[in-house]
């Protein structure tokens, strides 16, 4: 009986190993991918495509958030840095952009230096889940609603009472906006803005 068992088991083991070698897969590769956070490891963040916010929408977002020179603005997923730059140039705020894409990080950081704004604005190249946002008095988001839902516990934990959050096109599920505003660009494209205020 033992001989018969080995007779079937060993060929099956070798056959399995051969299949793995031929397909270039390992047992580890066949396990479900885990969502790893950390620089360049945030699989969630990679699900959000980079789409620049039209400048007229940027202006309305900052207006809706009532940004002033006393504010510290955080833009999560800051892209080319246009919200950060506008907040500093137009309102004199301190502004921090968080961008995980290395190319966008470099371009936006270089632009900030060219404009001489690096005393009030900077971009960090990190996973937004790992960046503390407790200093924020205003936050801007242009992320998917599903992503906002995953980000929500962090925001509830870290944002202070009275912090204004302005979302472009996508709401934070479970939060009730204080104000909703429709903006139409010069090309006739409609956009929706949501203002939330942390209790």
Describe the structure.
By secondary structure, the protein is an alpha/beta fold. It is built from five helices and seven strands. A hairpin with a 5-residue loop joins β6 and β7. α2 packs across α3. The protein is globular.
Task: Provide a short characterization of the protein structure.
By secondary structure, the protein is α/β, with parallel strands linked by helices. It is 35% helix and 19% strand.
Relevant terms:
199 residues; alpha/beta; seven-stranded mixed sheet; 5 helices; 7 strands; globular; disordered N terminus
Radius of gyration, rounded?
23 Å
Oligomer: single chain
| Secondary-structure element order, N to C | HHEHEHEEHEEE
Shape estimate: globular
The helix content, as a percent range, equals 25-40%
- Count every helix, treating DSSP H or I runs of 4 or more residues as helices: 5
Overall pLDDT level = 83
Strand order of the largest sheet: 3-2-1-4-5-7-6
Q: Structural class, from secondary structure content?
A: alpha/beta
β-strand amount: 15-25%
Largest sheet: 7 strands, mixed
Count the E strands: 7
Uncertain runs are: 1-44
Between the first and last Cα atoms, what is the distance in angstroms? 72 Å
